[in-house]
Write a structure and sequence with these properties.
204 residues, mainly alpha, Transcriptional regulator, HTH-type_Tx_Regulator, HTH_TetR, DNA binding, Homeodomain-like_sf
Length: 204
């Protein structure tokens, strides 16, 4: 967790530092990133870095959590635009991602998350029960008639969908798919979720 010194920075400066962290961590594996590289880009001393973060791992974990939350919010936004067709909202989000400029910071964040292959990418940040994000999530689940019986299950489903989106985008990148190929693969997954894999047996 970053230190209060970082969290209390003016928003503009904090956002710039987050973007520098993304640039460094998305360009290469964390094992190849040095604090010296980051502080040089930030135009500050090495000591200043440690006023913001405990160590490099702390900065890396924060960067993953920051962009994971941002993508969660954007997925919810797209689902909210298609309240009665939950999975269509996710499909629209994937289509939007596939059309992004590859030099954009958002695409850079997606590449970063698809390359993060350690446990950090699976650490869950539980939204507050009073948060707008969690309340909106419950409304969407109810509007689509999903049988989810507890807050824990609702959060687990949220992260399941996050994994579905990231895995779809990982396959899109790794296989150099077109948008149509990405969406077709996603539709297969939705069909499996909604209808299952077994065919109905006719009664003899």
């Amino acid at each position: 967790m970053p230190k209060s010194t970082f969290l209390n920075l003016p928003n503009e400066k904090k956002q710039r530092l987050i973007e520098i962290l993304l640039e460094n961590f998305s360009a290469r594996h964390i094992s190849q990133v040095k604090v010296a590289d980051i502080v040089e880009d930030m135009a500050m001393s090495r000591g200043a870095f440690y006023k913001y973060f405990e160590d490099l791992e702390d900065a890396y974990t924060y960067t993953i959590q920051y962009y994971s939350i941002q993508i969660h919010r954007d997925i919810l936004k797209y689902i909210s635009q298609n309240k009665q067709d939950f999975f269509q909202g996710i499909e629209n989000y994937l289509a939007w991602c596939s059309e992004l400029e590859q030099k954009s910071s958002y695409w850079q964040a997606i590449r970063f998350l698809t390359r993060s292959d350690d446990f950090t990418n699976h650490q869950r940040t539980k939204p507050s029960a009073e948060s707008g994000r969690l309340k909106e999530w419950f409304k969407l689940l109810k509007a689509n008639g999903f049988h989810i019986t507890s807050e824990e299950e609702a959060i687990s489903f949220l992260y399941f969908l996050m994994d579905l989106v990231i895995n779809s985008l990982t396959d899109y990148i790794a296989n150099d798919w077109t948008t149509d190929e990405l969406l077709q693969d996603y539709r297969y997954k939705v069909k499996w979720l909604q209808k299952g894999l077994k065919t109905e047996r006719s009664e003899s």
